[in-house]
Amino acid sequence: MKSSFSFSLCFFFALLLLQRVLCENRASSPPRGWNSYDSFSWIISEEEFLNNAELVAERLKAHGYEYVVVDYLWYRRKVKGAYSDSLGFDVIDEWGRMIPDPDRWPSSKGGKGFSTLAKKVHSMGLKFGIHVMRGISTQAVNANTPILDTTKGCAYEEAGRHWQAKDVGVKERACAWMSHGFMSVNTKLGAGRAFLRSLYQQYADWGVDFVKHDCVFGDDLDLDEISIVSEVLKGLNHSILYSLSPGTSVTPEMAKDVKGLANMYRITGDDWDSWEDVSAHFAVTRDFSTADMIGAQGLLGKSWPDLDMLPLGFLTDPGSNEGPHRTSKLSLHEQRTQFPYVTSTNGLRFKDRGLNWQSRSLLEIVPPETDTFSLTSCMDPKAKDAMEVCLDASPTRKLASKEIKRGSFSPCKWDTNQMWELSNDGTLKNNYSGLCASMKKVKVNAGFGGIQSWIATGRKGEIYVAFFNLSPEKTVISAKISDLAKVLPDKNLSNASCFCKEVWSGEDLGEAKESISTAVETHGCALFALDCS
User: Fold this and answer.
1) With contact defined as beta carbons under 8 Å apart, do 103 and 113 qualify?
2) b vs e for 93-132, b when ≥16 Cβ sit within 10 Å of the residue's Cβ?
């Protein structure tokens, strides 16, 4: 009788889990919210976080912003000597798991973790998120903490022994840009998988709704860990949105391996307030849009390519030990170009689909020469050419993935904390990857300068048309209404006239019978909402 009851109970809970999997639709639209990194780096306090959460609730929640996220190193003590890649300043529990620094997060005292903070965020009608790193911390491995078996509530035991942090940490796979902080775990071991389960179970117990998992994607891809974490998240009794980072060198082909395992994944390196970062988005978004990756099937819902944060308002600097101390360097027009108000999923670039656009005063830009950085075999003769500069990775700050890609060069100093070292044979070598660098002069590819145009449809059938002026002069851009049909075949627009409004200015342009046209400022954009019903 007892075994029959147990079977019935297990079957009942299995049905409940199946029902949740079938009915849940996480990330049904692109998740939006606020992240602390661009303004506070790693040093944000509980009071500062709650103040910003209140602003999101008061001013942005009505526009679809619902997440507030604590970015990295919330477990690091803010004391002398601590910085983004320091060792020995983190707060961990008896199981080697990161817990909030109680001096910066006083509500976490007494073993509460982020549970009190999450409740305060939820009371504002918002959702609470945190940033986490790959694998296990170096500090936990050095302390050789035991691993928690969440199914039994005690130390993990297998093959007649208890397993500890040193058994599962893979020191050879340390995070490239935080080598003193974290390393991968061996997911082939039951103990390694148990450690990851213990992390995410704790986040669920705290009431975390969003996890940004860093140093597992792009150049730092760890598909094994992503797969295990995704499986763990499916089995939790609390819904957690799963986001992957960083996005350096990500292609649609790489993203196809993870889109079903997560809800968001970065497709760029760290995005800061420079025009170069903004303009670089056009090529990558084109590739992911045409690959039909927008709103694809994801973890218990949908998945979305992520262009990183909008560096607007009061900011800090990458990897800084300071809070917000400056305003965004982007002009108002550049900020609007980075943040088009389009609530849609089917973005297509006009030029690729035959839409005729016209422009005036568009300068012909002569591509300059520039140094480029590439990776090659250490046996390649080009790697042995004389080198004057090295790719700099400051020991006092996190080097963003995009900075590695675009080049952050300085004189070679042979600093032991630099990622790149100049070998005796003249090669610039990266010890993490085992690859060497070569330099050559090339013409800058200006293929994504000039004019860009996008089209999308809204939830109520409206059509959004965006013009982007990436050129150095104010430019008049025009498009024919009849040509919209070439990229929107489901719309009957051949003889249609549309009522048009420019979103940013709020100007009602009335009926547009043949075309829409406007002058767009340098690095600026115009966004039209068209009612062609």
Assistant:
1) no
2) bebbbbbbbeebbebbeeebbbbbbbebbeebebbbbbbb
Q: How far apart are CA 180 and CA 133, in angstroms?
A: 12
Return the number of other C-beta atoms located less than 10 Å from residue 299's C-beta.
Answer: 24
- Is 299:262 a contact under the CB 8 Å cutoff? yes
State residue 222's pLDDT score: 97
| The pLDDT of residue 351 | 36
- The reported pLDDT for the residue numbered 345 is 32
Low-confidence residues of the chain, pLDDT below 50? 1-7, 12-13, 341-371, 383-384, 386-387, 389-390, 392-407, 409-418, 441-448
| DSSP per-residue string spanning 112-130 | TTTHHHHHHHHHTT-EEEE
The radius of gyration of the chain from alpha carbons, rounded to an integer in Å, stands at: 25
Question: Which distant-in-sequence residues (6+ apart) come within 8 Å of 389 by Cβ?
Answer: 409, 410, 411, 412
**Cα atoms in the 13 Å half-sphere on the side-chain side of 120:** 16
pTM of the model: 0.79
Diameter of the chain by CA atoms?
A: 85
CA distance 236 to 10: 16
**How would DSSP label each residue in 219-258?**
GG--HHHHHHHHHHHHH-SS--EEEE---TT--HHHHTTT
Note the pLDDT of residue 24. Answer: 73
Q: Judge contact between 365 and 474, C-beta under 8 A.
A: no
Residue 504: strand, helix, or coil = coil
Give the containing element (helix H, strand E) for 438. strand 436-443
The alpha carbon torsion through 177, 181, 182, 183 (nearest 10 deg) reads 80
Give the pLDDT confidence score for residue 212 in this predicted structure.
Answer: 98
Q: What is the pLDDT of residue 495?
A: 73
